[in-house]
Amino acid sequence: MKAVQYRSFGCRPELVDVDEPTPASGEILLKITASGLCHSDEFVMAWPQETYPYPMPMTLGHEPAGTVAALGEGVEGVAVGDSVIVYGCWGCGVCEMCAEGYENLCLNGMTSPGLGHDGAMAEYMVVDSVRHLVPIGDLDPVRAASLTDAALTPYQAIKSVQHQLVGGSTVVVIGAGGLGHVAIQLLRTLTASRVVALDVGEEKLAFAREQGAHEAFQSNPEAAVKIRELTGGRGANVVLDFVGADVTGELAVACAGVASSVVIVGAGNGGAKIGLTSAPYNISVSTSLWGRRKELMELVEMARRGQIQIHTTTYGIDQAPQAYEDLRAGSITGRAVVVP
After folding, report:
1. pLDDT at 76 over 90
2. Do the bridges between strand 83-86 and strand 64-71 make them parallel or antiparallel, or are there none, so unpaired?
């Protein structure tokens, strides 16, 4: 079968032919119907060889949608032909965090398809346990695949600060791309807050407004001035940084108000620097990693009701290496999805 793999350190992903996998006891074989691309893949491919934690080569793709093609011995709860997406946080299942449903925070180390196991950028993939499958019924798998990360990650981040997003509040979204454009939709659905998007280029700002942003400004130091003008000098109640670079972390703090919250979501190898006299008083800065399977189920229902819709650009599997180049260049609007 065809697969897109990270095969050599410092090199770009390659389209290769590999053997079709066979599910072992307790495992499920999926025929992939869609696989979303993510900047996390770029983060992994830039990882220094000395500390790289995953197998090599590795099939990429941690936003899978597929149909059940075969069941390993002892698997119950799904049937061949079922349409599903895959919850990507594969924890140990027995630690304290996993017992709470937070496999994304597994104390023994969370792995994922495409981030530790062969992923969905292929014609078939194996899922380790039925507990990591979420049925989607008749939802379009191309739109549903990226619910697993592009929607789940901002959903958890928003829920962590939702108590601050009351009537009259302001929330800033830095980066209106794959995750950020879904965050804008979720904020409009879940809160009464004014949503301000920050990004680079007029095309991206127009896209942010299409997704529901009340205001959209260029992401530069002047944006913080505009935020304070909008809020009567107070600053934003919440800032969500979907880039995670030092420059956006600095901007996030500059946009934030007293007793506000900044959530760093993007894996841009940077963050926010704060101190008692260099940031608004009582500011809270946190990170947010992925989300829970229960929250993914909630998102599936929201998608079924039309409350969120992921904007997608599709590629065939032969075009997947080009899709990664487009992702790297920042030329994709919304989410890129490979359809084998």
Report:
1. yes
2. antiparallel
